[in-house]
Specification:
The chain has 331 residues and is of the alpha+beta class. The protein has helices at residues 2-27, 72-78, 98-125, 169-177, 235-246, 275-284, 297-304, 321-330, and strands spanning 32-42, 47-49, 58-68, 85-88, 135-145, 156-160, 163-164, 184-189, 192-197, 205-213, 222-224, 256-259, 262-263, 269-270, 289-293, 314-318. The longest helix has 28 residues, at 98-125.
Length: 331
């Protein structure tokens, strides 16, 4: 063994010199986020409408690969890529664990599915009165809390000062929108009900309104499929795909349509992250129409203008669900 080390000491030393720093860089995590190109996903993979009307084209959402607290090695490698992005994590997100960030993404995705179903059925019902889906407000679910707040990801606010959301939604909403210190929130945390008194710290929260959907009385019926996708950015395309499955006219007109943007219960399309990576991904997948939130359009245009033969994919700025329908009806 001694003879072996004597003979190969130089090789062993160089191996340690080269590999040890790589090993260390691959283990040490940073407070940065790296975003890479992902893939397009056919929307039918999320929700299945019973006896859906056929379509010649397709609707796809786009996901990107995002890694919070990336390692030093990942950061160094990806900084050299023209289609990836490295950013500092916002300071107000550093107190979340990786598990909480995943849970946050699941809440965002689930709420976007609910909003998409509500909007699509409502819009389709204006064309065919048989189409309907009843819903009722259930709770406000926490998807962000301040580092010194008593709230946690997934907490469900079901009442404020004894005004319960299920009993009087209008009064609950008014109390929530006009929250003040010393208000008392009735909260469900898992299987436990607790009360949290409002303070300046506890007021720094955000989340999503959750609605109960009457699936058994919906026409036509639908099924939400299980998925590992997180985040709210598929809201707009989910709504369009569901709407198209419900009505007789095919608004795809045989085209491959993709895009991004959150969706609110009133049909507003919101800003998302990773827009440039989504532009690159859509182009690589031969998408013909890309629908982009208005608030992301200028950033998206920077990536779009770098594409070769960019005319093969048309880029549209969208502010509402109605805007998207108008674009597709005239495309």
């Amino acid at each position: 063994m001694k003879d072996f080390f004597k003979r190969y000491w130089y090789i062993i030393l160089m191996t340690l010199v080269i590999n040890l720093p790589i090993l260390i860089l691959g283990c040490v995590r940073t407070n940065q986020t790296v975003t890479l190109k992902g893939d397009t996903t056919i929307v039918e993979n999320f929700v299945e409408i019973d006896h859906a009307n056929p379509q010649a084209g397709s609707f796809s959402t786009i996901y990107v690969i995002s890694m919070d607290h990336s390692t030093m090695l990942q950061t160094l490698i990806l900084q050299a890529s023209k289609t990836s992005e490295v950013e500092d994590m916002p300071s107000h997100y550093l107190h979340f664990t990786r598990e909480e960030l995943v849970k946050m993404g699941r809440i965002q995705h689930e709420s976007s599915i609910i909003y998409s179903l509500m909007l699509a059925y409502e819009a389709a019902g204006l064309i065919d009165e048989r189409i309907h889906l009843e819903s009722s407000f259930d709770a406000y679910v926490i998807a962000y809390y301040d580092s010194v707040s008593e709230f946690r990801i997934g907490d469900r606010i079901i009442g404020i000062n004894g005004i319960m959301a299920k009993d009087d939604f209008q009064a609950f909403r008014e109390a929530f929108n006009n929250a003040k210190e010393n208000d008392v929130y009735q909260v469900e945390r898992g299987n436990t009900r607790i009360e949290i008194k409002n303070t300046k710290e506890n007021m720094r929260i955000s989340g999503y309104g959750y609605y109960s959907l009457e699936e058994t009385t919906a026409f036509p019926t639908y099924k939400i499929k299980e998925t590992n996708v997180g985040g709210p950015s598929g809201g707009l395309l989910q709504t369009l795909a569901l709407y198209n499955a419900l009505i007789a006219e095919d608004i795809t007109h045989g085209k491959k349509i993709a895009g991004t943007g959150t969706i609110s219960p009133d049909g507003t399309v919101g800003r998302i992250g990773g827009i440039q990576q989504k532009i690159y991904t859509a182009f690589d997948d031969d998408i013909e129409i890309f629908l982009c939130p208005k608030d992301n359009y200028e950033e998206a245009l920077l990536a779009y203008n770098t594409l070769p033969n960019k005319e093969s994919m048309k880029l549209y700025s969208i502010e509402t669900f109605a805007d998207a329908l108008e674009v597709l009806n005239n495309a």
